[in-house]
Amino acid sequence: METLAMTLSYMIYDLVCCLFDKRVKLDNAIHHLVSIVGIGAGLAYKKCGSEMVAALWITEISSPFLHTRELLKEFGYKDTDLNLAADILFAVTFTFARMGGGPYLAYVTLAASNPFVIKVMALGLQLVSAFWFYKIAAMVKYKLTKRTVPKNVA
């Protein structure tokens, strides 16, 4: 319960911070709202604690690679082999966690006798993950094909 309460606090804080960005990203805002409502419902109903902690692991296990990608860009390593390695590690970790473990966890949550709002939020989080998976797969495809295109030397 304490882990979920701390996570809920962080998600609210992070959503507020995201609203101050130059451009608010709808998918990120939906992710935060789904997480906030889902965790809040789990705490209020006192249900799905283990499932929500598992969801935290599934959704956050790729975060170190996500942040590594951003740091490498900030330090000027955007189009390097190191950045490509971070991109691929992020994509692979995200794919196995969110497209492997995520659907299983969503199924377990939907199949159990949980409150409707918890089931909707589990499905919503999986749909956001599927959307991001599509975007990440497109990014990896672009980066890999960009590297194989021969450069014209004048």
TrEMBL record:
Cross-referenced SMART domains: TLC
Start and end residues of each TLC domain: 1-145
Keywords for this protein: Membrane, Transmembrane, Transmembrane helix
Signal peptide: none
PROSITE patterns noted in UniProt: TLC
Cell location: Membrane
UniProt membrane topology term: Multi-pass membrane protein
UniProt entry tagged with the keyword Metal-binding: no
Gene Ontology CC, one term: membrane
Segments traversing the membrane: 88-110, 116-137
Pfam families (alphabetical): TRAM_LAG1_CLN8
Top-level taxonomic group: Eukaryota
Protein's name in the database: TLC domain-containing protein
Taxonomic path: Eukaryota, Viridiplantae, Streptophyta, Embryophyta, Tracheophyta
